């Protein structure tokens, strides 16, 4: 009877089938499908008329498709279903795409759906011209599947996974076994000279990952297997393994890979919403979490420490969470993700960035990676995932990270996602709270709407009148707004900004404040203090030179621009150098202005003008002739070298009659009817005098003509003095 009862208890367990979890991830250039099994299986992928067929060759295997379309739409993957007869997985495509498969590990198969045609001679395309051939291929793969490996007992040591065995269904030998599945024309490998270099690259990448804390590495026991040159051209190398090195992920989800190749962490390590304790009162919840850390004989429980850290982070206590991790040195706790989140919540710089290359992950990791990056314009950011993760944050956490997240999104051009952050922040904070207004001002400044930004900043000033907790953020945005308008800050704001920098360290928490102060001092006209504050920062010094060229007083231009170091001058953008050169030319320093720009960089019109002003008229003619927009400079240079007729032609083309007539007179090419003004009066005085009959009348006439001639000559000389 007992045996019968025991047998009945074991029946359900024996009937349980292995489950292959199918999940997805959306990226800009491709859609990723991952299939995770409990043990390794031989797989086959083949093209069908509507997409692809995947066979894992395992009897009773069940596919879990419940989360396939949770993260993606139907743009590339139209449908996915399991064949009822064979149990194979059918993937229907909705685009002109192809699938690139690869093994991420023994139990994880990755299928990347990419647009466009498949690579040439791909076996996944050429071997399945019909559904029947795909079925035959799947059936052959199922017949060739290896025997399931026994699961290790808790006390047994996990086997070491070796990449040289990935595509082999047998133990390594000196000669590869002949494949029994028809994979098409056999391609014999001929060159294995790069094997050592390939292993070295993998080892370097894994070492970097281990140093960053993403993986743990251990030396396997026993002799290493002999290398077997792959006879199968479709050998698949797993990214997680290398001979003599075993790799185990650190609480990461191997089905989630970033486009940069980093492992995206499991959601429970980055999603604050899931850390909400049962006790809603923060004090009681944190007290209970800390009380649960110590067990009998005051021994600390590592899991309880992690739970306590998560509880403190959920309520926004980053520094306290860090203190917890350091309070129990006897417990080897290494949670770099939690440590990084604690620092980011407190807006403190990271010593090490465990979120490196995770900005393309489809979870909350994208949010923390974007906040943790030191790049001004990072690439590959999943801005949609970051904005969605922000909306799911607890309401009391959103004001802590909302402004820096919106700024980071604006820096990468994700203005719509930044607006989503602002909207979510406005809903999570009271109406009189200034956090959403700060984000609104930042968005307006990036759009160039200074008036809208100033309106939002005035609302922040009013809200913080009694408790200015956001005063520094307001001053930073106020400085940016005044910078766009090229206007100085108010004296009160300038003094307040200076007071903030006195209490901040430039290299740690004061980078933004010091940068804003250098700009504010330049806008106020104190360029000595501005350059001292900027020190050797190229970006800050560039902003100061730009302000100096546009609104700096003449004394400052003469003091700083003339004595500028040649190396620094070359680092300035061309537009800034052009502005400074024009200022120097207006101040009567054409040689200094010419040195500010170089012939190869400056526009020809500007270079020609500076050459003319510096006295080299012939060189100015050569430069101005090459640029149609430099006609005025060309005419002036031609006049300077005495080519009046050529200059007159230019003025005639410009319909400048007065200038052309003057140039024609100077060239002695004129007619009487073209004379006007003092020239006509002089020409009239040169006519033969009329002789009167009586001597007295003749004398009076000569006297009158003499007066007219004197007046004409005086007028002519006055007109000539105006000619440059």
Topology:
Layout: H1 2-15, E1 19-26, E2 31-36, E3 44-47, E4 51-55, E5 62-64, E6 77-82, E7 89-93, E8 97-103, E9 108-115, H2 123-126, H3 131-143, H4 195-211, E10 215-218, E11 246-249, E12 252-257, E13 263-265, H5 282-291, H6 302-314, H7 318-326, H8 336-345, H9 365-372, H10 383-391, H11 398-411, H12 415-428, H13 435-446, H14 450-463, H15 471-485, H16 491-502, H17 511-523, H18 527-534, H19 538-551, H20 554-561, H21 566-571, H22 574-586, H23 590-596, H24 604-613, H25 617-625, H26 631-640, H27 644-653, H28 657-666, H29 677-685, H30 695-720
Parallel strand pairs: 1-5
Antiparallel strand pairs: 1-2, 2-9, 3-4, 4-7, 6-7, 8-9, 10-11, 12-13
Helix pairs in contact: 5-6, 6-7, 7-8, 9-10, 10-12, 11-12, 11-13, 12-13, 13-14, 13-15, 14-15, 15-17, 16-17, 17-18, 17-19, 18-19, 19-22, 22-23, 23-24, 24-25, 24-26, 25-26, 26-27, 27-28, 29-30
Oligomerization:
single chain
Strand order within the widest sheet?
Answer: 5-1-2-9-8
The chain-level structural class is alpha+beta
In terms of per-residue confidence, which ranges show pLDDT below 50 for 5 or more consecutive residues?
1-15, 151-159, 163-193, 220-251
Sheet with the most strands, sense and barrel status: 5 strands, mixed
Fraction of residues in helix: 40-55%
Discrete helix count: 30
* Global mean pLDDT: 76
């Amino acid at each position: 009877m007992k045996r019968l009862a025991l047998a009945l208890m074991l029946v359900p367990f024996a009937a349980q089938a292995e489950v292959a979890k199918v999940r997805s991830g959306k990226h800009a250039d491709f859609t990723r499908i991952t299939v995770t099994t409990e043990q390794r299986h031989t797989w086959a992928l083949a093209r069908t008329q509507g997409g692809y067929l995947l066979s894992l060759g395992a009897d009773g295997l069940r596919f879990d498709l419940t989360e396939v379309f949770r993260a993606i739409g139907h743009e590339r993957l139209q449908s996915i279903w399991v064949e009822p007869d064979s149990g194979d997985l059918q993937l229907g495509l909705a685009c002109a795409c192809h699938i690139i498969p690869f093994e991420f590990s023994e139990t994880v198969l990755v299928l990347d759906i990419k647009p466009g045609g498949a690579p040439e001679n791909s076996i996944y395309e050429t071997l399945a011209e019909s559904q029947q051939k795909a079925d035959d291929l799947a059936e052959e793969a199922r017949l060739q599947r290896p025997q399931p490996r026994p699961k290790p007992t808790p006390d047994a040591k996990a086997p070491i996974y070796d990449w040289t065995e990935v595509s082999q269904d047998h133990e390594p030998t000196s000669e590869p076994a002949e494949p029994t599945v028809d994979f098409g024309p056999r391609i014999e490998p001929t060159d294995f000279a790069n094997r050592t270099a390939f292993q070295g690259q993998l080892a370097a990448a894994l070492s970097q990952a281990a140093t960053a804390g993403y993986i743990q590495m251990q030396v396997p026991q026993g002799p290493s297997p002999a290398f077997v040159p792959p006879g199968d051209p479709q050998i698949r190398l797993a990214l997680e393994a290398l001979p003599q090195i075993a790799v185990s992920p650190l609480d990461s989800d191997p089905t989630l890979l970033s486009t940069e190749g980093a492992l995206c962490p499991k959601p429970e390590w980055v999603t604050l919403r899931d850390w909400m304790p049962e006790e809603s009162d923060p004090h009681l919840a944190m007290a209970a979490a800390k009380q649960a850390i110590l067990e009998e004989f005051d021994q600390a429980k590592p899991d309880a420490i992690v739970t306590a850290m998560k509880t403190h982070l959920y309520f926004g206590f980053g520094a306290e969470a860090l203190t917890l991790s350091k309070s129990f040195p006897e417990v080897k706790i290494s949670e770099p993700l939690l440590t990084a989140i604690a620092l980011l919540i407190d807006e403190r710089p990271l010593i090490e960035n465990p979120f490196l290359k995770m900005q393309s992950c489809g979870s909350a990791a994208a949010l923390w990676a974007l906040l943790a990056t030191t790049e001004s314009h990072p690439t590959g950011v999943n801005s949609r995932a970051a904005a969605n993760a922000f909306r799911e944050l607890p309401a009391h956490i959103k004001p802590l990270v909302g402004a820096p997240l919106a700024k980071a999104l604006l820096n990468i051009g994700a203005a719509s996602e930044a607006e989503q952050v602002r909207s979510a922040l406005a809903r999570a904070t009271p109406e009189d709270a200034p956090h959403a207004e700060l984000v609104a001002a930042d968005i307006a400044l990036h759009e160039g709407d200074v008036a809208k930004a100033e309106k939002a900043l005035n609302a922040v000033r009013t809200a913080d009148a009694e408790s200015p907790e956001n005063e520094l953020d307001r001053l930073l945005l106020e400085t940016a707004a005044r910078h766009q308008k090229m206007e100085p800050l108010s004296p009160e704001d300038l003094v307040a900004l200076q007071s903030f920098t006195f209490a901040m360290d430039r290299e740690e928490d004061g980078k933004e404040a010091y940068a804003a102060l250098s700009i504010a001092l330049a806008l106020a006209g104190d360029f000595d203090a501005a350059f001292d504050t900027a020190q050797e920062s190229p970006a800050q010094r560039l902003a100061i030179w730009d302000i100096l060229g546009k609104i700096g007083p003449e004394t400052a231009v003469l003091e700083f621009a003339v004595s500028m170091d040649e190396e620094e001058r070359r680092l300035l953008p061309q537009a800034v150098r052009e502005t400074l050169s024009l200022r120097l030319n207006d101040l009567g320093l054409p040689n200094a202005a010419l040195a500010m720009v170089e012939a190869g960089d400056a526009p020809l019109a500007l270079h020609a003008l500076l050459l003319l002003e510096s006295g080299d008229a012939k060189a100015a003619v050569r430069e101005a002739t090459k640029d149609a927009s430099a006609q005025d400079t060309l005419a002036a240079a031609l006049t300077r070298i005495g080519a009046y007729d050529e200059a007159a032609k230019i003025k005639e083309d410009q319909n400048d009659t007065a200038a052309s007539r003057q140039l024609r007179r100077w060239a002695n090419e004129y007619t009487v009817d073209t004379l006007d003004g003092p020239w006509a009066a002089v020409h009239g005085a040169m006519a033969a005098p009329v002789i009167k009959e009586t001597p007295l009348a003749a004398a009076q006439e000569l006297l009158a003509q003499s007066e007219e001639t004197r007046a004409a000559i005086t007028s002519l000389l006055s007109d000539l003095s105006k000619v440059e």
